[in-house]
């Protein structure tokens, strides 16, 4: 995602430029929530942000550029991993963080709009991948800490553990359209923990 972070508009400037970026990204998020990716237009984002259209076109180039920068910003704003000293509590915290995000009116709608965009836009896919990779890498640290404490087997793949917690939540959210609540999140975390303790996430020898 290195090349994506070099898109115009993704550098963190100060002063008026920072205020413009903040206003444009907030407007982008509002437009995504209300109209989805395919209803997102550069002109409407500019109008909503109170910014000249030429500024938006020059700095972000396309709606995909806007979405990419928005996902970068959301990743940078997201909270660090839990550190309770217990892998069970840490994984439960991860599951609750995911369900809190996907069920939030604005944040959840933003994710769903960008995920939908990923079905037809390669740049949206890269933006999503970068966002989730960053979050998975952050939370995988709790697994590494648990291995050091002796709570999980040596060699446990932390990133796969975190993916395994989120997967059933996103499946319900996007595929079956079933409710995603704290009970579902808790079950996902505890099942994943049981599998991890049994060594299911230790890679097999080549």
Automatic annotation (TrEMBL):
Q: Where are the transmembrane segments?
A: none
Q: Does the keyword Phosphoprotein apply?
A: no
Any Pfam family from its record, for instance, is: TetR_C_11
Q: Which InterPro entries match?
A: Homeodomain-like_sf, HTH-type_TetR-like_transc_reg, HTH_TetR, Tet_transcr_reg_TetR-rel_C_sf, TetR_C
DNA-binding region as annotated in the record: 41-60
Extract the SUPFAM superfamilies matched here.
Answer: Homeodomain-like, Tetracyclin repressor-like, C-terminal domain
Domain of life of the organism in this record? Bacteria
Keywords of the record: DNA-binding, Transcription, Transcription regulation
Residues forming the HTH tetR-type domain are 18-78
The protein in question is named: TetR/AcrR family transcriptional regulator
Organism source for this protein? Answer: Nonomuraea spiralis
Lineage of source species:
Bacteria, Bacillati, Actinomycetota, Actinomycetes, Streptosporangiales
